[in-house]
Queue: 4 jobs
Job 1
Amino acid sequence: MDPLNRVTVVAPVNIAVIKYWGKRDEKLILPINDSVSITLDTSIMRAKTTVCSQPDFSENQLWLNGIKTSFTNPRLLNCLEKIKHLAADQQSVDPAVLSWKIHICSENNFPTAAGLASSAAGYACLVIALAKHYKIKTDLSILARIGSGSACRSVFGGFVRWHAGVESDGSDSRATQIADSSHWPEMRALILVVSDNKKHTSSTIGMMNAVKTSDLIKYRAEYCVPKRTDKMCEAILKKDFVKFAELTMKDSNQLHAICLDTYPPCVYMTDVSHKVVEMVHAYNDMCGEIKVAYTFDAGPNACLYLLNADVPRVLTLIKHLFPSSSSDFVTGLGDVEETETEF
Ligand code: PMV
């Protein structure tokens, strides 16, 4: 028994290959389209969260990457409130525990808010830790979604699909695992950190403006993504890398086309990002077959998906073309890790 009632959880980042972009409900975080992602190995990019409540804590407190931060974030408060409600309904802990203040300490081992899916790992971690702390049983992907949409995919390892759902209360907007982290052991992600500056437009604002002003986003959600998502799931299950990679690149390009179609435009990719795109196409052309795929979230940093056998050659090429880049790293697939400490 841990005298401090602490629970620590490590949750991995996930990088989407079919992107979530645009909400139909801002508060419940309900997306306008399904998305598909890969959950990476926790050894390289992960969030780690410890939660702890005590009868003698005088206030709720939050530390993010070692810095004491105000406990006023509405999404954080929303997650905590929902979890405590469930705990009360399920009578999962002594009612006194629910009245104790809580301390939350969370850290990432990679840049926060630089378009590297930090909120996905952060909220997945938070929700899993709180659910363990209050011993509730529920669909954790739904709870994580309320913190940050893409976080709902980080509660599962391997290949994950977030179903947009149709219900207005969000009860069917949840993630499911397509295949676990051992399904395609050769799959690797190569993260190229183009910039670790905080992004200028948050994904929340970028999406909101896109839904309001882009015509292309409606076409994407209605006509492109449904077909693409089914094809992506099939490519993953069949381990068809060429198909997987083509769909991944096309979907990333479409996301950034929508960002440009947003008024005023929202530009996340930089000249260096575009050079990475050129490099990947040139390399694939040279190989006579698609060997590498790029994908970009709401930031300039690239995630390349490739098979293990191609990693040495692609890394050599990157070092040659981007000699000053020092923070590129390769990772495989992973799962959530939980360190449970009992009351
Ligand atoms: O969950 P958010 O609000 O950080 O949005 C993430 C959006 C993208 O990373 C660009 C796409 C995705 O599906 O992860």
Job 2
Amino acid sequence: MSDAGDVRKALASWVGYLGEIGVRELALRDAPAPVASAPEEVLDAPATLASLRDEIGDCRRCKLCEARTHIVFGVGNPHAKLMFVGEGPGADEDAQGEPFVGRAGQKLNEMIRAIGLAREDVYIANVVKCRPPGNRDPEPDEVATCSPFLFRQIELIGPKAIVALGSPAAKTLLQTKVGITALRGRWGSFRGIPVMPTFHPAYLLRSYTVENRQAVFSDLKAARARIDETS
Ligand code: URA
């Protein structure tokens, strides 16, 4: 391929990536730039969790901004080996600005302790960062708008494994329409990172059967073994 073709290809890939992490505008520099300048010189992608949070700003990119109180970015160890991903903040999380702090959060903390870890050891985030009204599932346009921020968060943290809590998280990370009952307990992959889909703690609270509890425990034990394997 010609040099110009290579440059065009590299730029197209870079611009696609910027779109994925939510960048909608590129500023042109006043100073004349060399024709084949490195893309990094044009605009830096958020390189830390703090700069990613700054990039999100007081987000108005989708309709979830209308009723939210707080953007719920994520919490935990920025170098966590294990990451948990839920669907979106509920009422308690919206009020406090932290994921999984309500009843489902208490259950999640229990689940994390059951595999010998503490909430502070892991990183917890959601597919969407603003509360869907009435705790409905996030809609496809909301997931499409917000998930690139989750994806960048995952890249920055670099966990050894991810636990996807419930259908929306599993579907988003695994890019599938298959429901959680069929997915749970089987490893999938997000950009090379192993993903274990399991039931959402809120579902577990609603359907507190021995079978469901055993299923979730078995999924979490598999995730724990995976991060220990690769330490
Ligand atoms: N349910 C989720 O999926 N995420 C939260 O942060 C809280 C409840």
Job 3
Amino acid sequence: QKSAPLPDDIRAMKGGKPIVSLTAYTTPMARMMDAHCDFVLVGDSVGMVLHGLPSTLGVTMEMMILHGQAVARGLEHAMLVIDMPFGSYEESPEQAFANAATLMRETGAAAVKLEGGQHMADTIAFLVARGVPVMAHIGLTPQSINTLGGYKVQGRDAGADKLLADARAISDAGAFSVVLEKVPASLADSVTNDIPIPTIGIGASAGCDGQILVVDDMLGLFTEFKPKFVKRFGNLGEDGEKAISAYAAEVRARSFPAPEHTFADQAPGKSGGKG
Ligand code: KIV
Ligand code: NA
């Protein structure tokens, strides 16, 4: 039984066996993936996936703390990383530190993740110098959809140089790994070969040092939309709806509950028992 890796252990996986990760938002989901993942991310995707928000912009510190605590209770082997929500870190390194410390203190997360490249480098260095391991996130950064102009592929053409500069800046600033979201595969490979920290791909390349997906997407539970980069490894949404429709039919037919689901007046072999 191995204990959870630390950010330095994840960093040391650069160029080695692929790093496996998923998002989680609840204790049972965390338990399901604990033995299979190197790290688990409490993503701010929780806002869209579990709370029905139209984007991640409405996610609060309170939501991240509650879901982070739930996920922490389900993990024993995988490292816990938690997203900093929109508005909790962009204003200043000091603001970022205060909120990162709150997230780590309340959830026990080993590291935080924040979105942004060169413009977040000073903040990343400030956090790392003060004991907060940082996973960066570049390429498509969903908290910036309103300035990026939607969920487009990032880093094509002229954007390639910027992505590489972003990757170098956050690596130099001391981030222990970086998520590359929705960038051309060849660019993801170039970044992976260029920087000394692991790249975690989502809509990037099999050549990245690791992969991540939103767990509800890959289980087929979140079906509102399916990005091209999502592969459904299950169809839990369909299975769940079938189960619910069977339940509804049995209730309407009075075939559920059946005798084995109901209680007698007396416990068998006792008098006045709880039954
Ligand atoms: O919030 C999230 O789920 C994420 C991952 C998809 C990288 O940031
Ligand atoms: Na996120």
Job 4
Amino acid sequence: MKIPTLDDVDVEGKSVLLRLDINSPIVNSKIADTKKFEAHVTTLKELESSRVVIMAHQSRPGKKDFTTLEEHAKVLSEILDRDVKYVDEIFSNRVIEEIKSLRVGEYLLLENVRFYSEETLKRSAEEHSRFHMVQRLKDHFDLFVNDAFASFHRPHTSVIGFVPVLPSVVGRLVEREVNALSRVFESEGSKVFILGGAKVDDSIRVLKNVLKGIADRVILTGVVANYVLMLLGYDIGDVNKRIVEEGKSDVRDEEVIEILRKYRGKIVVPKDVAVDKDGARLDVPIDEFDGRYRIGDIGSETISMISDEIQRHEVAVVNGPAGVFEDEKFAFGTFEVLKAVSKVKYSVVGGGHIATATRKFGLEDRMNHVSTAGGACIRFLSGEKLVALEVIKDYWEKKWSRFFGRA
Ligand code: 3PG
């Protein structure tokens, strides 16, 4: 099924509802990284001849960085070099008035959509379309453009709820992401996945899926490697077990043991680890480790083994850091993994922390693609369907394509 894009619709003079993903790290009430904003610039600029109302979220209720989008509007204004208005509500009468008064070439950012309690209910697009947010706003727009690739795995109101009631297409960022990530499947040659980070559940999900077909090798680093070492019978100690447990909620040990048995020759695990001994890095072979210290990185022998392994492949996908790279003494593993990945023919970095590390180490320009997405990127690369993409394609085919000559 075709993915409808901005090429399929006419935006000139139209009122466009645009969903972005500008959910970003916030430090001391300031947005600490504007990469996600910059990634939307192509789409935003392409809508210069429309009236544009932007919806977005920041974090989740209960979290420290769950906040209003006032600062986000300022960042958008800066990177677009034009005023982006902001209204601290989502679908009140005031918002409707603001939308009505918008002129061609003007942008308005609405409040954090997660302030609205129905937003995150897991419902179908049809059900979401009957919720207040959609019913109140839909009649004020000609078109819905979804550019929030990092949220494409979320069946939320602002992500899928407008699709049944407004002609809907994806934005340019989504196109770039889908094309770049699809090349992982389409590229010839052998493929290596390097999985790390602290989200054990996510990594195991990817491990399971990629081993079924696409990956020739999977290298485990970070907390997920420590979990697997534990399952292989190594004593990683209580402090490291606790960190593993924090990243793990629905993974069953027996299932992972079965995967390890079935794909033994394809999975690479660390042979040494770097621990924090009285504030200094100490490399210890895994069979000599007594579990006394916190593991902060993969060990030096592992680093050189996996750097060589990575460079034997044509395609490399890295998802999640190898260690606590924010701490200089534990940055070595992540840095060397990224360096090796940057040397293969087609290199992809999957969002979140590892994208930040790639920038920090100045390696961004040496990668073929650094995704803006974490969960959505992982799911896509695992061969899972992204709900927002499916809904847009589905409604385009069954409903909206007939309204546009270029379908
Ligand atoms: C992300 O940062 O991965 C997206 O913005 C989605 O955020 P979420 O995991 O809170 O839904």
